[in-house]
Here is the input.
Amino acid sequence: MAGGGELKLLGTWASPWACRVRIAMHLKALSYDYVEEDLDNKSDLLLTSNPVHKKVPVLIHNGKPISESLVIVQYIDEAFASNGRSLLPSDPQERAIARFWAAYIDDKITASWKQAFSAKTEEERLEGTKQLLVAVETLEGALRVCSKGKPFFGGDSVGYLDVVLGGLLPWLQGTEALCGVEFLDAARTPLLSAWAERFGALDAAKAVLPDVGRLVEFAKVRREQQAAAAAAAKN
Here is the structure.
């Protein structure tokens, strides 16, 4: 893969946000050093590179850190415009629409998913599940409009929104096992279900996205650890 200056990415294998960036890097054919972080024992490099949130992913380009997955993907697209196809639309209005739906995915899809996953009561889980299903159906409509009848949000080929949602794909495919609801339902959301199959078959997705079964087991262990820590804090 080609590059333009020194690139280093701090991430974790299970982070959908880091997966977004790695997919974008693959699509743009960029060479980079990948550093797998232990979030229970964060490196000094991570803490100094992202002192505000202390989270992954962080892209370090020629020694300068850039944080937040949506920001990083946009930066990659602009800084390496000559590498591969542009991810963001060239039309200003379409670009704004893509950014709107990217924010929607993080504000609505991930927020309701986290509520369903981390719920302490059945009532909270059901509410999170309800919100998730509503958000998914709304996103189905967005795919219909943005794709204009073509295979991806970006049209004939993968674009910014495909990368944004694609990084979440293994988590969303594991939602039934983790939250008791199927996110990608061919009957309720046929466009998203077909999109998921197409996206998952891409070389970039195969190279980056973690195995769903491994991710589900990892998430179950983390949930048990969080529940144990919360119980210990009360005592």
Notes: The first helix runs from residue 16 to 27. The first strand starts at residue 7 and ends at 11.
